[in-house]
């Protein structure tokens, strides 16, 4: 899987985690600071886990694309020999089925190539830029650091969603193309025998 590193540093946009209001929120909830710290740590872990899960999803989808491409090549090599021999394809139905098979074959190639092309996805944050952003916002103590980082991970995940949706769409289109290729060539081969 090829992913580009983030093209820009993550800038923490929200100031809602500013440490000035942190002591008040601890008192309002009547929870000891140690209990709040574990909650922020958990939120941080959930944020980093969600980002890792998204990265794994993209890797799995791209791995399936290569398998679909291989399956399309095998189907084409097995069925086209009987489709294109002894004056075939001939007749309207066999020509139509062959055209559908060729369309599906081209679709498999096109959609898998688009699926596998490099995309600017980010599954981490730049440490130096994030540190500077936290410092500029005066977020230097726990639990505010964990909360701010969790928010940065969530922002990164949200930025990836459109690209991930496109990857899923191209996988679906490649699968549909594989079905068209198989059905078209199989029908054309049956009609030619």
What features would you describe in this structure?
It is a single chain. The protein is mostly helical and 193 residues long. The protein has one domain. Helix content is 74%, strand content 0%. The chain contains five helices and no strands. Helix 3 packs antiparallel against helix 5 (144-192). The chain starts with 21 loop residues before the first helix and ends with a helix.
Please outline the helices and strands.
Layout: H1 22-29, H2 33-83, H3 92-116, H4 127-136, H5 144-192
Helix pairs in contact: 2-3, 2-5, 3-5
Supply database-style keywords.
mainly alpha; 193 residues; rod-shaped; 0% strand
What is this structure, in a nutshell?
The protein has 5 helices and no strands. It is mainly alpha-helical.
Number of strands: 0
Number of domains: 1
Largest sheet: none
Shape: rod-shaped
Strand content: under 5%
Structural class: mainly alpha
Rg (CA only): 26 Å
């Amino acid at each position: 899987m090829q992913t580009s590193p983030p093209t820009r540093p993550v800038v923490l946009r929200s100031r809602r985690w500013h440490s000035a209001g942190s002591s008040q929120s601890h008192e309002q909830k009547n929870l000891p600071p140690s209990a709040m710290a574990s909650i922020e740590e958990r939120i941080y872990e959930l944020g980093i886990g969600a980002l890792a899960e998204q990265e794994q999803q993209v890797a799995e989808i791209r791995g399936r694309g290569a398998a679909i491409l291989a399956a399309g090549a095998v189907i084409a090599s097995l069925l086209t020999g009987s489709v294109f021999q002894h004056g075939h394809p001939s007749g309207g139905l066999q020509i139509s089925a062959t055209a559908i098979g060729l369309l599906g074959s081209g679709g498999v190639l096109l959609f898998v190539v688009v699926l596998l092309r490099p995309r600017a996805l980010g599954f981490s944050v730049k440490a130096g830029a994030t540190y500077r952003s936290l410092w500029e916002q005066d977020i230097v103590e726990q639990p505010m650091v964990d909360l701010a980082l969790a928010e940065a991970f969530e922002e990164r995940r949200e930025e990836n969603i459109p690209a991930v949706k496109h990857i899923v769409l191209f996988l679906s289109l490649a699968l549909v193309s594989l079905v068209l290729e198989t059905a078209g060539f199989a029908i054309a081969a049956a009609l030619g025998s």
